[in-house]
Amino acid sequence: MEQIYVDKTASRGIAVAPVYLYQEPDLSPVGELVSEEQSAAELEKFNRARENVQKELEHLAQENEIFAAHLEIASDIVLKEGVEAKISGEKKNAQLALWETIEEFAAIFASMDDAYMKERGADVKDIGKRMMAELKGVKRPDLGRLETEVIVAARDLYPSDTVKLKSEFVKGIITEEGGVTSHVSIIAKSMNIPTLVGVRGILDKLTDGGTVCMDAENGVIVIEPDEAALAEYEEKKKACEKERAYLESLRSKPAVTKHGKRVFLCANVGNAEDIRHALAMNIDGVGLFRSELLYMDNTHFPTEEEQYQVYKEAAELIPQELTIRTLDIGGDKELPYFEFEKEENPFLGWRAIRISLDMKEMFKEQLRAILRASVYGHVRIMFPMIISLEELRDAKELVEECKRELDAEGISYDKNIETGMMIETPASVLLAEEFAKEADFFSIGTNDLTQYLLAVDRGNKKIAEKYDYFHPAVVRAIGKVIDAGHKENIKVGMCGEMAGDKKATPVLLELGLDEFSMSAGSIDYVRKQILGTGFF
Ligand code: PEP
Ligand code: MG
Question: Which CATH architecture has domain 36-136?
Fold first, then answer.
């Protein structure tokens, strides 16, 4: 028996089952250079493989939106031209040309600091493997055929493997690679399959068919458990299922404290798929729609029309408030198609609203798209990283300018649309009373606020234990912002990670927070905390 501790829990739960070791067929390229005459045939082979994969993805996209994104990658003209250039120009065969191009694409994503974008590299590789399997005429093992209870262990799983899994048989997933925001993790979470990712070296320790216990609540794997461990895990599993059922039974209850204060439980989302997932938790709205993902997961600045379609779909999905945060890039969030000048201190540099106010035409495209979508639901606009009244006024003036343009064009929008701001800089805390007179709502971004108040880089592992949103300075700042908002009768929410931390719920309720917005996976736990809390 061996016990391993893991820190990346992608989907919670407890599982006990034999291991199914997932072995990928060899998809590495065979052959190298080709002659002038052969290259035309290689081009044809590549384009045939690409078309077959596109057809397959079109079919899959009807079942799961993730494959719509995959289809976009597979249809990407830069990818196609990249492979063709290697075949025609460098005389590589189709397999080698494809392999190298996919590696180059994936490396671009992998070099990004943003965790979400980093993991989009896995999607590119997934497409590459699909095309490679087509080119080589190899069948990948079909995980959809697993029909006995197992825990699937793999070096990595791709979204296309994961969607096929049948959750009544696949009791758990363990991968050596991948992160918690990878699409595999997102799918596993939506299928309620306990999943641990990034467990380096685990495949060398596991044997096919050997029993494993996994605790994806606390991040523990027990290999070849003895009788006592098996009994302990059976108990844990029962307790966990009971807790799950209990949490689900609470979903129908509005989030009201024992003292009768109604608070709003909202979700942080990046796309329509996230909203669908969060709706199952009975949310009161979306407190943060990260519009930057639409810009980051792209090959160009999304046009007004492209953005409008995305915001419209989101607004139609959720009748309650949909808070769209305007573009928040810079810092650690880069764009694959836009060169940022190197900065000494990117987190103190050209980011978020600073970029939007400097690139007014781009900003107006986003604002017009949001305004146009506002007739389909209850849309709110939120500006990130504000430090001065001047910035808030300039941003609001641009909203007014867009409204006037839409009026002139006869295009409708919600005339009462609210414009609020994130409180995530020390300046906005200190000026909260003034801001509250001009903003329609506040949302506290504790991720940045903590780093700026404590002068502790949010991404620096060396000082990670100093990054603490329970620090009295942060807690006091939150209290001050809530009081300032309430004095002017505006709603104060929070969309930083602290809002989804159930340990923070009592103190945030005590301070008077009105709205808690968090990733979907935390909602059940925070709701339970709110319902059981005697604070006001
Ligand atoms: C925050 O800063 O708390 C926040 C929600 O924004 P982000 O994490 O995207 O900077
Ligand atoms: Mg922030």
Answer: Orthogonal Bundle (1.10)
Q: Exposed (0-12), middle (13-18) or buried (19+): which is 342, by Cβ within 10 Å?
A: exposed
Is 495 tagged catalytic? yes
CATH superfamily of 254-532: Phosphoenolpyruvate-binding domains (3.20.20.60)
Q: Whose CA is nearest to atom 1 of ligand 1?
A: 445
| Catalytic residue of the set 183, 213, 266, 277 | 183
Q: Average the pLDDT over 193-199 and give the result.
A: 91
The class that CATH gives domain 2-24+141-229 is alpha beta
- The structure's pTM equals 0.75
Domain ranges of the chain: 2-24+141-229, 36-136, 254-532
Angle (nearest 5°) at CA 233 between 229 and 236: 140
- Residue 441 makes CB contacts below 8 A (sequence gap 6+) with 380, 382, 418, 420, 421, 485, 490, 491, 492, 493
Ligand 1 pocket test: pick from 266, 495, 519 the residue with the most ligand atoms within 8 Å of its Cβ.
495
Band (pLDDT 50/70/90 cuts) for residue 536 is very low
**Residues, the chain:** 536
Q: Mapping DSSP to helix (H, G, I), strand (E, B) and coil, where does residue 390 land?
A: helix
* Tens digit of each residue's pLDDT (9 = 90 or more) over 31-66: 778 888 888 888 998 999 999 888 888 888 777 777
